[in-house]
Amino acid sequence: MTGGPAPSLLEHRPALRPDVLLSPPLLNGPATVHLVKDPVSGAAFEIGTKEYFLVSRLDGTRSLAEIGGQYGQAFGRRLDERNWQQLLALLGTRRLLAGGPPPTAPERNPSPLQGGLLRGSLRLVADADAATARLHRVLRPLLHPAALGVLLLACLAMTAVLAAELPRLADGLGWTVRRPVPLLAVATLLWLSTALHEFAHGVAARHAGGTVGEIGLRWRLPVAIMYCRVDNYRYLSRRRDQLAVAAAGAFANLLFLLPFFGWWAALPAADPTGRVLSALLLLGSAQALVNLLPLPPLDGYTLLGHTLRVTRLAPAGSAYLRLRMRDRAAAAAYPPRARRIYLAYGIGSALLVLLLAAGLTAVLWYAATR
Question: Which letter does DSSP use for residue 6 in this model?
Fold first, then answer.
């Protein structure tokens, strides 16, 4: 007794593993790509828009023939079994298909200490995601949009007042840097502010549906800073969630200054404590605002990338500008949107660096002549 004919490959209904992450479309050089990540192994790679069209429809309910028909309507080309075999082989090799071999998690270094005395890192929390989740539950009332709006307005008002009082703040900074004890106190508070900056990224990621991979201390002697590695937020579907995660650190820096700002505002201008607070407010607000500049590796650079839906903005922009100077015809092959973005960023970032250099020179000259 013989069985019926073997079903065609196109009749199969494969499914991507439900935990596999797919990013929104991102501009990378002349191409539009999507990021694909296996959250278990941590492996990630890029695919094009056509591959994304297929992969994102592998949900176990549609046959390959149905998906192929939709592909043909969208791109004007039908897929044969050989095309599907190549794609499914790629996904199967990376263990991204449901029902296939389970993914292998990377081996974790049992020691929390990595590196050496001069350069290294120390993992401080065994389960960073769980710890951040607990912190998120405590802070959740403050993450309501109304509460965040009030806090944002308070930070903007504080920043406006500090900008108007810049000479007073500069005098306080000049007084403080000549006194080691007050200067050490300011430096300690600023270090604490950087730690809160990192935790804020993690809490914002948890609030938006992302995860936190690691919390620890990283040092490049003589500098040591806290870090919080946020996973998966690049794959959030809503752009505003990505922007909130990227901006959370600078926002936390400004929130940290609010009680010190109230204390400073209540003191007489000549009070020594007011001078120390002036130094803290000037350096702390500069720390927050400089971090919003769209230059790598600052948070402002990440914010701009999410706003424009661009990955590797600086290197891709540099590559485009070099190509434009060497081969205008090849550069003209870039899509119009890519040409506009990369040219504007190249010119804008160069002007910004020049302005920062001029501003720093002016500040140093002012400090030297006081």
Answer: P
Classify the C-alpha dihedral 38-41-46-50 as positive or negative.
negative
**What SS3 state is found at 214?**
strand
Q: Residue 119 forms beta bridges with which residues?
A: 220
**Distance, CA of 20 to CA of 23 (rounded, Å):** 10
What is the average pLDDT value for the chain, to the nearest integer? 91
Please check whether residue 43 is in contact with residue 35, taking contact to mean a CB–CB distance below 8 angstroms.
no
Give yes or no for residue 1 having a pLDDT over 50. Answer: no
pLDDT of residue 370 exceeding 70, the answer is: no
On whether the CB atoms of residues 95 and 102 are closer than 8 A, the answer is: yes
CA gyration radius, the chain: 26
Residue 40: HSE in the Cβ half-sphere, 13 Å Cα cutoff: 12
Q: What is the DSSP string of 26-80?
A: EEETTEEEEEEE-TTT--EEEEEHHHHHHHTT-BSSS-HHHHHHHHHHHHS----
Q: What are phi and psi of 165, to 5 degrees?
A: -100, 25
Amino acid type, 284: G
DSSP assignments along 235-277, one per residue:
G-S-HHHHHHHHHHHHHHHHHHHHHHHHHHHHS-TT-HHHHHH
Q: Are 23 and 51 in contact (CB under 8 A)?
A: no
> Structure pTM?
0.90
At 100-147, the pLDDT tens digits run: 888 877 777 777 878 877 888 999 888 899 999 999 999 999 999 999
Q: Considering only CA atoms, which of 292, 120, 300 is closest in space to residue 223?
A: 120
Residue in the structure block whose two tokens are 């200490």: 113
Closest residue by Cα to residue 10 from 97, 59, 82, 94: 82
Residue-wise pLDDT tens digits, 240-257: 999 999 999 999 999 999
User: Residue 367: its pLDDT value, please?
Assistant: 59
